[in-house]
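Field reference: sequence -> structure
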Amino acid sequence: MGLPSLPGVSSAHSSLRFLEFYTHENYNSVAPSAPPAEAFQPPSLPQAIAVPLAVQAEPQVGLPFYQRKCFISMTLLAIGAVLGAVLSNSLDESGDTLVPVPGLGIEPQTSSPSEDPVAGQSAMESLVPSSSVVPKTKPTSNPNINPVTLPPTTSNIPIYLPTWPPVLTMNTSLKLLAPEGSADDWFGCSTAIYQDTIVVGAEKDDDNGLNSGSAHVFVRSGGKWKHQTKLLAPDGSEDGRFGMGVAIHKDTIVVGAWGEDDNGSSSGSAHAFVRTGADWTHLAADWTYQAKLLAPDGAAMDYFGRSVAINEDTIVVGAERDDDNGEDSGSAHVFVRTEEEWKHQAKLLAPDGATDMFGANVAVNGVSIVVAAHRDDDNGFNSGSAHVFLRSGEEWTHEAKLLARDGAARDYFGGSVAIHENTIVVGANRDDDNGEDSGSAYVFLV
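Structure field:
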């Protein structure tokens, strides 16, 4: 005879079993003798509950599962809150701040500007190789603190902190104009300064013919800047582009004229001027290669003079479209002065140059030369690079190749370069960090 069916409960005995609930008296009573099998009648049962085996398999000891899960979550949350408070107090006491590193997922910290905005400019840190651990820094009010110097590598990247430079207005600045300037002169296409003397190029001035070019000298006297003289190439000609590159050190000025044709169309040249008292005289007879500097192996379309730099008795002239390492691979030429005579000392090439326009920009500090190759492709098409050369005696050796660690295609890293003592600055005028072609600059220590 089958067992009585319960509402909503399956009759499959393999999946369910019944759990009887007896009164206290039934539980303590003596069970009656079992009747013969053929006469078995099931006892009258109180309300029964069907319990799945899977539920019975879990011992009902302690809290149910969902209650235990909630208890564990609350415990972990409390522990996290305590640890967070401890760490926060520790950081507040030590004053540690994170150093932002582009490309490593650490963003710049937001802080209030320094009381002295100029002192804030000293906050740029040293470069860090990719394999190095980024150190923590502590804020300081000392503007003369020296950053840690690490050897230059091809993967160096400067560490930067937000700075607040002073805002200059016309009360603290001055606008210089060419006394007889005219349309399309491009006055200001290049500039250079040494102490109280400024040089400004105007490569499309027409005094010696259309786009022959010029350079203007301003001196400061009694707190005012005054136009002192206008420099022209003695043999200037149409499309000479004299003034595209200018440089000055002490009483010597160098002016590049990349469009001149002495060694072929747009082979280029560079001119030197020295100052005696208040007068500037062109060093015509005192320069090797007759009246001006020329590349010994110059050829058409080299653009020798596209960039120039000078320090003491060393001049560097870039020829960005020289073809020694391939079309438009570029080169840079070094000239040195002995007494009043200038001689060609070396020709610098990029070890891996190829259509890189090595020599588009140059800088020199006496023992080091920086040459930009803003169309190098190591980090993508025209991502750019810069090369460092060191002098030992009369020899120049390639020391390092500088790349932007976060460089990308068309950044033009090397769009400008500068060096002072052991600090190098490289511009990337089409970097996109602040928007398309917003630009950036990188600082390296060597």
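Note: The chain has a mean pLDDT of 75.
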